[in-house]
Amino acid sequence: MSGFAEYKSFFPIDSIQKVCDFFEEQLRSNKDPDLALFSIIVGAVENNLTNIKNSDKDVNLASNRFVKMKFPSVEWEEVKTLYDRFVALMRSGVDNKLVAGEYATRDLVKRVADVVWNSLTRSYYKDRAHLQSIYSFLTGNKLDCFGVAFAVTAGCQVLGKQDVHLALSEDHAWVVFGKDGTNTAEVTWHGKGNEDKRGRSVGEGVLARSWLYVAGKPVVCTRVMELAALVSSINPTLTPTIDVHEVAQMQHKLLWLLYDKGHLDAYPMALGNLGDLDEYMKISNYSAALYVQAIRSSRTHYEDRHVYPYTFQGGYYHRHKMYKEAFNAWACAGDVIRHYNYSRDDEEIYKEFSEIANELIPQLMKAESSGHSARSILKDPECFASLLRFYDGICKWEEGSQTPILHIGWAKPLVSTISKFDAEVRAQVNIICSPDGNEAIDAPPKTENSEENDNKVKDNDRWNNNSENTEMSVREQLTAAVNSRPRVTLYFWLNA
Description:
By secondary structure, the chain is of the alpha/beta class. It has a domain at about 1-55 and about 65-240: C8orf32 fold, CATH 3.10.620. It contains 20 helices and 9 strands. The strands form 3 sheets. The chain has a 4-stranded antiparallel β-sheet with strand order 4-3-2-5. A 3-stranded mixed β-sheet has the order 1-7-6. Strands 8-9 form a two-stranded parallel sheet. A hairpin with a 2-residue loop joins strand 6 and strand 7 (about 240-245). The radius of gyration is 25 Å and the shape is globular. It starts with 15 loop residues before the first helix and ends in a 6-residue tail after the last strand. The relative contact order is 0.08. Residues about 435-470 and about 475-480 have low confidence and may be disordered. It holds the Pfam family Menin. It is found in: Nucleus. This is Menin. GO terms for molecular function: chromatin binding; transcription cis-regulatory region binding; Y-form DNA binding.
């Protein structure tokens, strides 16, 4: 390990503060972070703290939302031994001929992926927690999908290939490599039976308009952003209903360190995770601003093709009973997903939309319909417009896809929800149908200027009080009133 000895003074790492000090020292350094080293340290802390066998026997797990654990002591010798083993595995498993040359080749990337893959146990671990670190790889021969991609990137770094970087969608990971970083390669799986994709380009997924590959707009990481991806992947779960406070606290502090240095600016998922953690820790009140920043990041860097920034925000609004705002955030999520074609690889985002449409919305509609508040969302045409946008996006997502989405389990809540809005409320929405019921795949992306124009349009669409404008004729006042109704453009109407 180049310069490994300089880190010895930080050991033993036996507190969150020491982990933060270690990271902060790296962020101040001009050297690239050593991915394997940091993954081993973070993995050691997380795996020890979330080991149910090590949990405090006096803690009543059934009655706690989170528990506090004694922070482990990560020793220098343990880390060095594991690191040396990882380096030896890479160097012994990869032919020197493949390492020759300034830049990585597809054959090299595939070989490193094979070395990692062949060291794993036979089982897949898509839904198991705490298997994303090289610590898990070296101590238990287990990695999840993200962990494999991260280990391949770290393995290429160990072999001196600085051009290999992690690429992240919202539910998948691969690598980019080459002189300009324009080559792509699958190095992990997504679901079962996909191991034969290792080494192949991801271009086919992009051409298929797949959400799994975010239409060719992934987060392509720098070395420090790969460090951010490692931190963002930390999982504080002890049981399905209980988190370990120290793990969440460590993740929260590390993400803030990265945020303050600007390393999360182009990483919407990490910003959303930090927003959730900030709300969970109840230390500051920046959650709402972080969700807005995640959305801005997606719009600025990825042509607004990431869905989770909006579902992060919608979830926040829903938890705080800001239902109108939640409807709008979910509608924006629908606006994004309509750009894709649904496939069975989109299981995670399908579950997200299913929960929103078939659980959260019906629950809040039931709660709202039982009251008589003058501010009820059921009396707000803009909420109805948002609801239409949300469902129209899901319908457009299904259109042209080989796998259906909407079935009776979706249709019943949809009809029930729409019917709870009075006819006079529904009539106030100005529904505009897309001229051809379809959008061009290469439609021009939104820019910051177009976003500002969109906001102006939305402001103009609100009801205006023109009664005091004596200079307007009756016809002009009626025209202004019609034009100021909430407007929604539907794209699925031809097949509806």
